[in-house]
Amino acid sequence: FPSHDNVYVAQMSAQPSTLAGFNDLTLVTKGYVDSIYARKTAVTGSINSSNKIFTFGNAFRSDSEAIYVNGLLQTATDDYALTTSGSFITGVTFVSAPLTGSKVNAYGVY
Fold first, then answer.
1. What are phi and psi of 20, to 5 degrees?
2. Alpha-carbon distance 76 to 73, whole Å?
3. Whole-model pTM?
4. How many helices (H) and strands (E) would you count in the chain?
5. pLDDT at 85
6. Strand partners, 13
7. C-beta neighbour count of 93 within 10 angstroms
8. What is the pLDDT of residue 84?
9. Residue 63: CB partners within 8 Å, gap ≥ 6?
């Protein structure tokens, strides 16, 4: 995601197939854009072939998580269970512990 503080979004007319269809640009602040798109967060937990419990640096909105182990998207209930606080996801418990040296990444809307 760009590190700029502002993002400009084009508003299109009825003819979006041509560049002439752009009428104006609407300023959207970074805070607003960040709340719409999934973002990566820190994942805390020992990756030692036995630990299954991991927590997130930021809580995600319900049903917005994408969890990866070594670049492979994991499936809820098949690969992990969610840890929640109210309607927010705060971490995961894997069915099988990630092997030592694995990379665990989490993305979601927060």
1. -65, -15
2. 10
3. 0.68
4. 1, 10
5. 96
6. none
7. 14
8. 97
9. none
Q: For residues 105 and 72, what is the distance between their CA atoms, to the nearest angstrom?
A: 10
**How many residues would you count in the chain?**
110
pLDDT in tens, the chain (110 residues): 444 444 444 444 444 444 444 444 444 444 444 456 789 999 999 999 999 999 999 999 999 999 999 999 999 999 999 999 999 999 999 999 999 999 999 999 98
Q: Encoding tokens for residue 60?
A: 């995600």
The total of other beta-carbon atoms located within 10 Å of residue 89's CB is 24
Element (H, E) at 22: strand 22-29
Residue with tokens 């937990």: 45
Alpha-carbon gap, residue 27 to 96, rounded angstroms: 45
Whole-angstrom distance, CA of residue 36 vs CA of residue 3: 16
- Residue with tokens 């995961």, as numbered in its chain: 92
